[in-house]
Design brief:
23% strand, 302 residues, Methane Monooxygenase Hydroxylase, Chain G, domain 1, four-stranded antiparallel sheet, 9 helices
Length: 302
Amino acid sequence: MINRAILASLLIYLISCTSSDNSAMQARMFIPKPVKTSISTAQSESAKVEAFSALLQELARHQLIHTYETDLHQKVAGYLPDTLVSEGYDLHIREIGRIDTFRLVFHEYFDIYDDWSHTYLDIFSPAGVLLESMKLWDLSFEGITNIDFIDSKTIEIAYRDFFKQEDLRAKALVPAHNFYLNPSSKNKNILEGTIFQYYTISPGGKLKNLSQNIQVSEGRKFPQSSAKLLSKSELSHYSLEELRLMKNEIMAEYGFIFQDDAIQYYFEQQDWYLPGTKQIDSLLTDIERLNINLLVEAEREF
């Protein structure tokens, strides 16, 4: 007859072995689920991209979103939390283009009662995440803001309006003799013209302002080569001699001493030229570097 104590010990041993085997089997059979999670995330991201694209297409069909269109206002507010969508504010919003995967959107909201508005350039990810929103200049009723793409990487913002000289000084746009600003016949303190600004977009979706020389010397034949980004189509209207002078003027602005005697003699006859250096790389602005490269290429292709 089996001793009860021995039988109890045997049963405890068998139970522990079974429990251990089951744990081992469960460990061997355990399958992590990162694949399902990643697929779900990808599907979610794809849905966000489609939803944002659908909204932009819907907005393209509206010149103006009135305050009583509450559903559309709420959709926009989900992407532009700073947009005022309460009663009394109307909204104009449209996609203006893409750079790489980023979607560029122009939006304006204004008070229909007090007659004021604010405009912004917005950078979105493909899924509609707002990466940056840059407030544009407030212009007069007659003013025009134009946003254009110089190439696949560069944005040009042109402000056409009447400007007060003190406002330009506050923005470090001091000289009244720049090629794009002319005194108004009515008021000498008011300047009429166009001011250009240029931006690229960083890999993180942030706007980077390209530096430009807006304080060009009075008397230059081609001051625009320092103040605005030139284009191939624009340069096609100039002769080879004019292209070379345009390029050399950029360098002469900083007192560059030319090795070519004829070029050096020409600039020494100019009142604004002050010779003094052969190293100007660190002095050139972003716009001037880009223009010099473009002008060199235009000379080769002439």
